[in-house]
Amino acid sequence: MKILTGEEVEIVLFTLRMAALSTLVILAPAVLAAWGLARYRGPGKSVVETLLSLPLVLPPTAVGILLLELLARRRPLGEWLAARGIEVVFTWKAVLLATAVMSFPLLVRQARSAFEAVDPRLPALARTLGCGPWSAFFRVTLPLARRGVLAGTVLAFSRALGEFGATVLVAGNIPGRTRTLALAIFHESQVGRDDRALVLVGVTVVLAFAALWTAEWLDRRRARLLAA
Amino acid sequence: MIALDFACRLASFTLEVRARLVGPVTAVMGPSGAGKTSLLEAIAGLRRAQGRIAVGETVLHDDAGGVRLPPERRRVGYVPQDAGLFPHLTAGANVRFGARAERPRVDAAIEVLGIGGLLERRPHTLSGGEKQRVALARALATDPVLLLLDEPLAALDVGLRERIIPYLLRVREEWRVPMLYVTHNVGEALALAGEVLVLEAGRVRAQGPPADLLRVPALHTPDGLENLLRGRVTAVDEDGGVLRVEVEGGATVVSTWSPGRRVGDPVTLAVRAEDVLIAAETPRGLSARNVYEARVTSAERSGPDVLVRCALAPGPSSWLVRVTPAAADALSLRPGRPVWLAVKSHSVRCL
Q1: How far apart are CA A1 and CA A12, in angstroms?
Q2: CATH of domain A6-227
Q3: If pLDDT is split at 50, 70 and 90, which confidence band does B201 have?
Q4: A127–B138: do the CB atoms touch at under 8 Å?
Q5: Which residues is B6 bridged to in the sheet?
Q6: Lesser CB count within 10 Å: N end or C end of chain B?
Q7: Is some CB atom of chain B closer than 8 A to the CB atom of A124?
Q8: Do B46 and A127 touch (CB under 8 A)?
Q9: Partner-chain residue, chosen from A130, A140, A227, that has the shortest CB–CB distance to B72
Q10: What DSSP designation does A120 have?
Q11: pLDDT tens digits for B230-245?
């Protein structure tokens, strides 16, 4: 007996692809934003920080509505996309957008505290040793903050795996097109197939566990390599 | 030659330095918080400054000429007080981090500093002295035009200091890179520097050869105000653990024995102003080995204390003594008052 039906396997793979892609898409901008926030000391810092963290505390459905509004054809962005024939709403791109927006602040927060923990004199010393600002970032700051950045990446990935509220509004819950695990669990439970919902819950637990455990393992391996 | 003419705003005062340093090693001295580290940071390009900074023919910073080289283009090697090694790299990777010098020169730096056996180690497994030597090699490997050393020996104990100084001397002799060397230690300045720059509250207080500066009767150090006494060793008693030194003015001062001193050697002794006792009458049965008849020449309030200047009876030398206002009152320490000064030989340091 197979645990998962063919359709469910598709859903799992789709969810994994979306979560991985969204993490990949936000990685560079989130790390840069975190670095900027950690270094910047000036007016407006707390405003920017609060704005960036907003999706963490807003109901995901509110974020979903805001995204829909942004993508509406009467808005400049929606108009611009429509003019180029790019459909976002109710497609996989909407899933990607919703998960990316929802997990971005998590990665930024984690990475920012990791960058803040790096002794600012070390990259400064790298400068005196001939590194430009970017080279000092990649050779000193980022390696020293890697644990926090890695932890943030895993958190963002896990958040993307489970995103529901924003996704359901922007991408709908279309089987075979935009239905992710979280949406499928909701759907199965709504139509009374609690046993299938439970199976899918089991899958999400395994995936989330695997993600967190991988991060832990990577971190330990690094620690061992460092100690060796 | 290093030409400095710049100002730099710090939290509590403005650092203003105008000096031409001929080196090759310049010791930067002065009390804590005088701006010594900020001076190095400004030269390295890590701190915003206004004015002009030039090393030899190379202008690093010149607001009038519109030159403001970023730190990576200054070729100034900077070794901070705690060495600042990159913790995620091995000692060897640290040394090669910014290596601009040719391979044999990098190898020579490793050899001169005696760190060949440490290259595979991680910084956290190195001792304080090893870290300093790795950091120095890392700076040398960039083929710098100037080395900035911020109290490289401050974190080390005395025995280790004496073992590192020869490495610094080798760097001075073999690399011929000019150095700015922040130190609180008069002995290090004497051993290494051709010139001393004294900073106080962001200003240059004095500049000149160390011997001249040490001619001043007292010097502010982190240990406090120190009396400096120049003289010659007249007797070495290793078993008794003491040295006898005849200081300028004729008085004999007994100091604790220090290795390698021979009769006839010139020495500079340091005695903290806090460590001198003042007695109103001839002290008797005291364990202190140094008791001198003197006369108060001045007594001035200095912060919470009173600084009393006393001229020794036999000669021109004068000592600064720090006492509490209550003690100054009780002994009525006013100019002209005859007093006796007493110092334990343990409070006399041989620099």
Answers
A1: 18
A2: 1.10.3720.10
A3: confident
A4: no
A5: B17, B51
A6: N
A7: yes
A8: yes
A9: A130
A10: T
A11: 788 888 888 888 888 8
The answer to whether the beta carbons of residues B51 and B61 sit under 8 Å apart is: yes
Predicted TM-score (pTM) of the model is 0.75
d(CA A113, CA B193): 43
Longest C-alpha distance within chain B, in Å? Answer: 70
Task: Verify whether the Cβ–Cβ distance B46 to A129 is below 8 Å.
Answer: no
Q: What average pLDDT does range A150-160 have in this prediction? A: 91
Token pair in block for residue A121: 């004199």
Instruction: List chain A domain ranges.
Output: 6-227
Residue type at position B133 = R
The sign of the torsion formed by the CA atoms of B58, B64, B70, B76 equals positive
pLDDT over 60 (residue A228) = no
Q: What is the pLDDT of residues B9-63, one digit of tens each?
A: 988 889 999 999 987 899 998 878 889 999 999 999 999 999 999 998 899 999 9
- A–B CB contacts, 8 A cutoff, strictly below: 56
Best of B47, B85, B94, B97 to disrupt the A interface (most A CBs within 10 Å) is B97
- SS3 of residue A14 by DSSP: helix
Full DSSP string of B59-128: EEEETTTTEE--GGGT-EEEE-TT----TTS-HHHHHHTT--S-HHHHHHHHHHTT-GGGTTS-GGGS-H
Model confidence over B170-196: pLDDT tens digits? Answer: 888 888 889 999 987 777 777 788 888
